[in-house]
Amino acid sequence: MNNRKIIVFTDLDGTLLDHSTYSFYEAEEALELLREKGVPLVLCSSKSRDEIKAYRKKLSNNEPFISENGGAIFIPEGYGGLKCEFDKIDDGYLVIEIGSEYQMLVDAFEKIKRKPDINIKSIAEFTIDEIVELTGLSREEALLAQKREYTLPFIIYGGEDDVKIIKDEILSSGLTYTEGARFVYLMDGNDKGKAVEILTDTFKKNSPDTRITTVGLGDSLNDLPMLEVVDKAFLVKKEAGNYEERIKVEGLVYADGVGPVGWNKAVLDLFNNN
Ligand SMILES: [Mg+2]
């Protein structure tokens, strides 16, 4: 094993992208370094496929990506001659599907919503104007955010007790949930960690003579499964300046900065020390 390769998996919202402005400007220096070194940057977000595609364009990124909290892996057809098993070819991507069908989640959500004392609202029920108000996305981006395939983002109205009741309902209906900075996500067993593991295995099988080191960067609870499976895990600060305290991973590095500022420092440090 003489060859070495680093693969960087990153969350978008609040990590590579600023929580409020969705800008990655503060991380430009480190992004440029990754481009120079030819290090694959895999976007691994709760965002929808079309939202991530828009960011790949802005970042001139042609790598595989992971949508909707590990709902699916998208590998560009012909990418590095890579071979793998996949569920379908769609829009020029080999798609490995991990999450369940969206309609099933919508139906399950409706069932939970009908129970007494439950006040929840899914992204499908919000108008575009409401999503813009809630997220700070542009109207075009809000439309893309609504195009879900594997997870259903929603908002819980109420206090801690209500949150607990709703989460218990989700678990007892056999589904799972995770939390990003703005939404809770209804899912069926997918998480970022499963997707990162599958994609890492695919890279490893296709390059048996290469020693692959994986790096992960995140900010919120939905990043925990990803940070648990990578070799080097970094946590950036949230907008309020704190770290997500529920993320505890062995060897976790606390990046010194909020969102893309921390991202930039973490990636520059990683390569300057290796
Ligand atoms: Mg995030």
Strand-helix topology:
Elements: E1 3-10, H1 28-37, E2 41-44, H2 49-58, E3 65-67, E4 72-76, E5 88-90, E6 93-97, H3 102-113, E7 120-122, H4 128-135, H5 139-145, E8 152-156, H6 160-172, E9 176-179, E10 184-187, H7 192-206, E11 210-218, H8 224-229, E12 232-237, E13 253-258, H9 259-272
Parallel strand pairs: 1-2, 1-11, 2-3, 11-12, 12-13
Antiparallel strand pairs: 3-4, 4-6, 5-6, 7-8, 8-10, 9-10
Q: How would you characterize the overall build of this protein?
A:
The chain is α/β, with parallel strands linked by helices and 274 residues long. The chain has two domains: 178 residues, HAD superfamily/HAD-like (Rossmann fold); 86 residues, 2-Layer Sandwich (Threonyl-tRNA Synthetase, Chain A, domain 2), CATH 3.30.980. The protein is built from nine helices and 13 strands. The strands form two sheets. The chain has a nine-stranded mixed β-sheet with strand order 5-6-4-3-2-1-11-12-13, sandwiched between helices. Helix 1 runs parallel beside helix 9. The model has no long low-confidence stretch (mean pLDDT 95). It binds magnesium ion (MG). One of its GO terms (cellular component) is cytosol.
Task: Give a concise summary.
With 274 residues, the protein is α/β, with parallel strands linked by helices. It contains nine helices and 13 strands. It folds into two domains: 3-98 and 191-272, Rossmann fold (3-Layer(aba) Sandwich), CATH 3.40.50; 102-187, Threonyl-tRNA Synthetase, Chain A, domain 2, CATH 3.30.980.20.
Give the count of structural domains. Answer: 2
Broad structural category: alpha/beta
Topology pattern, helix = H, strand = E: EHEHEEEEHEHHEHEEHEHEEH
Number of strands: 13
Question: Distance between the terminal alpha carbons, to the nearest Å?
Answer: 17 Å
Write out the CATH superfamily name of the largest domain.
HAD superfamily/HAD-like
Q: How helical, in percent, are the residues?
A: 25-40%
Could you list the spans in which at least 5 consecutive residues all have pLDDT below 50? none
